[in-house]
From TrEMBL:
A Pfam entry, by short name: TsaE
Keyword line: ATP-binding, Cytoplasm, Magnesium, Metal-binding, Nucleotide-binding, tRNA processing
InterPro entries in the record: P-loop_NTPase (IPR027417), T6A_TsaE (IPR003442)
Protein name as annotated: tRNA threonylcarbamoyladenosine biosynthesis protein TsaE
UniProt keyword annotation of tRNA processing present: yes
GO biological process, one term: tRNA threonylcarbamoyladenosine modification
One GO CC term, this protein: cytoplasm
Top-level taxon in the UniProt lineage: Bacteria
């Protein structure tokens, strides 16, 4: 499936882009965020949360694996960086196929447990305030989402 990208020149630009995605997501959507430490995964999630109407401040869930926020639909924000092993099952499916949208930082840790159809976002560090954001759909729903986001 087609991959496209956008370049941002400031954290605010990344957040505005993610905010647009937050306005488009529906229940059951799964968004994965890949990229090195400091790439902007959590910043992206903050913007997405804003687009979802989340009022609380979104912080990295590093020490809890998952944090849940109330928005237009629930937001399940996961950071699976600290999982012991890739097969550790913390009941992820309940969230993936639940009534909200799931955003996962470091998805490679649990790739075997992820749903097949997901919007894959990769953020690449290009300079102090420049990032390349790549978007890839892996199924029919994420493809639809990707097209709406590209408009
Ligand atoms: P991650 O969750 O990937 O570790 P964070 O979102 O916590 O990354 O941190 C990204 C850092 O990079 C923040 O300090 C943010 O202000 C900075 N930054 C600089 N330029 C950008 C940009 N264009 N997009 C996103 N973040 C940026
Ligand atoms: Mg983070």
């Amino acid at each position: 499936m087609e991959t496209w990208s956008i370049r941002t020149m400031a954290p605010e630009e990344t957040m505005v882009f993610a905010e647009k995605l937050g306005a488009l997501v529906q229940q059951g959507d799964v968004i994965t965020l890949e990229g090195d430490l400091g790439a902007g995964k959590t910043s992206f999630t903050k913007g997405l949360a804003k687009g979802l109407g989340v009022k609380k401040v979104v912080n990295s869930p590093t020490f809890t694996i998952m944090k849940q926020y109330k928005g237009r639909i629930p937001l399940y924000h996961m950071d699976v960086y600290r999982l012991e092993n890739e097969y550790e099952d913390l009941g992820f499916e309940e969230y993936f196929y639940g009534d909200g949208v799931t955003v996962i930082e470091w998805p490679s840790m649990i790739v075997a447990q992820l749903p097949q159809d997901r919007l894959k976002i990769t953020i690449e560090y290009k300079g102090e305030s420049e990032r390349l954001i790549m978007i890839e759909a892996t199924g029919s729903r994420s493809s639809e989402l990707s097209k709406e986001l590209a408009v």
